[in-house]
Amino acid sequence: MDQTIPAHGYRPDLVVEDFTVPSDTPGISLHLRNKRASAQKTFSAERSILMVHGATYSSASLFDVPLGGRSFMDHLATQGFDVFALDARGYGGSTRPAEMDAPAQDSAPLVRTEVAVRDLASAVDYVLAHRGIPRLNLVAMSWGGSVAGAYTAGNNGKVARLALVAPLWLLNTPAPIDSGGALGGYRKVAVLDFRERWLAAAPEAARASLIPEGWFERWAEASLASDPLGNAERPRVMRAVNGPIQDIRDYWGAGKAYYDPNDIRVPVLLVHAEWDRDVPMATMQDLFSSLKRAPYKRWVEIGEGTHMVLLEKNRMQAFDAISQFLAERDP
């Protein structure tokens, strides 16, 4: 059974609901947040979106922190989209595997990409049934791009368009997210210390203005709040599963694709920023060239941005590129 929980403290022109829906695994539930304009009464495939987060931070952290008075979900909802955002198991409001309550070294890396693809499948099927629509648009970031790409490759009929922000693909350089060494089931992320690595991707002269004042602190607090157990530790941390990092070692970092882009047969948008160290430009070019069966494809490159461009000063360029792509008619 799903549970609908009204959310409070958001813009009065938007309806916000949080859903708890079943996964394909007994005892594992998935969190979905929905935002839409309060005036919206009808729903269509073309105006419906499901968002997928990356390897470390939840959907609420990446897509729904109101920086500068507006989150990415707010932006899409005010553009007339019915927007859902998924937390895969182990993230945000979704069930964390029981192994995350034990020491990390007691389990193998949790929530591999294959598991997240299954969670995405459960979420897509829920939204399609809930809204009575045949398909929807997918918007995903980083590792979420791997999840959404793999899902779309096997389920083109359920996807209208695919928009990917810095999607993980074949890497010719080490992945910054992987610090090396043995991987346990999960890792503890000191979110407040992430600012230095984030800014290090930008030229030194650009770092002071990359993240507007107060934005990092607000985002970090929201990220830490997503994991009450980790947040109770001192120093404060957030637990993140290690399955995505294991898959970087086994696939992307080893020159092996997890899925075949030729199996994607829907329109695709790639959004990338010039200072992205996690997904270098050559990686993006390789993926773009590999999408040979998409009806059409587009690559938008944003200047003065890093892998976290959705939370930086130039984020509106990414927001607008995605909303325009999803709103336009097929050529």
TrEMBL record:
Key words, A-Z: Hydrolase
Domain (AB hydrolase-1) ranges: 49-313
A GO CC term assigned to this protein in UniProt: membrane
Keyword Cytoplasm: no
GO terms, molecular function: hydrolase activity
Top-level taxon in the UniProt lineage: Bacteria
InterPro entries hit by this protein: AB_hydrolase_1, AB_hydrolase_fold, AB_hydrolase_sf
Pfam families: Abhydrolase_1 (PF00561)
Database matches in Gene3D superfamilies: alpha/beta hydrolase
Protein name: Alpha/beta hydrolase
Source organism (scientific name): Bradyrhizobium manausense
